[in-house]
């Protein structure tokens, strides 16, 4: 009889312990799910901040390029050629100081690429470099070719022909690289346009001087 009571109590205790374990296991599972959900929410919020951080860094990278280009354009502008030597020297010192300070800011946003995207970027860069290296040989032809490359990078209807080969190469690049390639072409075309204006103005001035000289001779 006593043995039967002991066995009954032991069985009851075992059931209670088993129920407690099950209850505890269920509680822990619920707690882990809540924690996982909170962690995932935090990571989602951090992802938004990371992308905003990269966008801000990219904007700074572009601003650096724009500042350097603007300083360079001022140094090579026609206005700089039509002031006294002393004033030009002083302005160049200021421009060089600003350029030096701009260059002290290092901004770099690395783009994640797979092997195919890396190869496409190298190919696209090579195609642009080949045209740039021949700029002095034929300025007009280089401009036409660069415009055909730029037309391949824009969603707008281009004014001229599109380099289909270059377009297929650019499509294989990472999205961030596509934007950088387009910006580089825009910068090159702006510089070419400024160069053409300078050349045209210089030729006009030479022509005016020749006409004035001829009039005096007559």
TrEMBL record:
Disordered: annotated segments: 1-23
SMART domains per record: BAG
UniProt xrefs under InterPro entries: BAG2 (IPR037689), BAG_domain (IPR003103)
Q: Can you give the residue ranges of the BAG domain?
A: 120-200
Q: Which GO terms describe its biological process?
A: protein stabilization
Composition-biased stretches (Low complexity): 1-20
This one is known as BAG2 regulator
Q: Which organism is it from?
A: Casuarius casuarius
Q: Which gene encodes it?
A: Bag2
